[in-house]
């Protein structure tokens, strides 16, 4: 059983910043990738950012240059620094962990991010 605990969401004004955290615990068999996805009302879940073993990162086009993903391997924690937030970033943000050679795929409960004045 794997637990993913997300934190850091909330309400922020346009142009502001937030930092999301996701701590993984439990039966983890070699992390292959951790990442963030988001889902806005009425829309499909989309990629925000991922980081794989070796530190290689990948970003969705809409967040490139504004968001930064990082990982603390010792803590099995992934972070998402979100800057220059815009209303279109409003969504529930989900943490994802892929481990065990890609066999295991776990998702967090989600944290709400709302960008509004």
Describe this structure in words.
By secondary structure, this protein is an all-beta fold. It contains no helices and eleven strands. The chain has strands at residues 2-7, 10-12, 18-26, 31-39, 46-52, 57-59, 67-72, 77-82, 91-99, 104-107, 111-115. The strands form two sheets. Strands 2, 4, 5, 6, 9, 10 and 11 form a seven-stranded mixed beta sheet that branches. A four-stranded antiparallel beta sheet has the order 1-3-8-7, with no helix packed on it. It is globular, with a radius of gyration of 14 Å. The mean pLDDT is 95.
Poorly predicted residue ranges: none
Q: What is the radius of gyration?
A: 14 Å
Globally, the shape reads globular
Helix content: under 10%
Secondary structure tally, helices: 0
Report the sheet with the most strands, covering strand number, pairing sense and barrel closure. Answer: 7 strands, mixed
Secondary-structure topology with pairs:
Blueprint (H helix, E strand, L loop, with lengths): L1 E6 L2 E3 L5 E9 L4 E9 L6 E7 L4 E3 L7 E6 L4 E6 L8 E9 L4 E4 L3 E5 L2
Parallel strand pairs: 2-11
Antiparallel strand pairs: 1-3, 3-8, 4-5, 4-9, 5-6, 7-8, 9-10, 9-11
Essential attributes:
117 residues, mainly beta, seven-stranded mixed sheet, four-stranded antiparallel sheet, 0% helix
Q: Could you give a quick summary of the protein structure above?
A:
About 0% of the residues lie in helices and about 55% in strands. The chain has about 120 residues and is mainly beta. The strands form 2 sheets. Strands 2, 4, 5, 6, 9, 10 and 11 form a 7-stranded mixed β-sheet that branches.
């Amino acid at each position: 059983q794997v637990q993913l605990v997300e934190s850091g969401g909330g309400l922020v004004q346009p142009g502001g910043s937030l930092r999301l955290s996701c701590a993984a615990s439990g039966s983890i068999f070699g992390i292959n990738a951790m990442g963030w996805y988001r889902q806005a009302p009425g829309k499909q879940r989309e990629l925000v950012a991922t980081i794989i073993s070796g530190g290689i990162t990948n970003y969705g086009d809409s967040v490139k240059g504004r968001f930064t993903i990082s990982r603390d391997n010792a803590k099995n924690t992934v972070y998402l620094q979100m800057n220059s937030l815009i209303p279109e970033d409003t969504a529930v943000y989900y943490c994802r962990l892929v481990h065990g050679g890609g066999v295991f795929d776990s998702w967090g409960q989600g944290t709400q991010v709302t960008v509004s004045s």
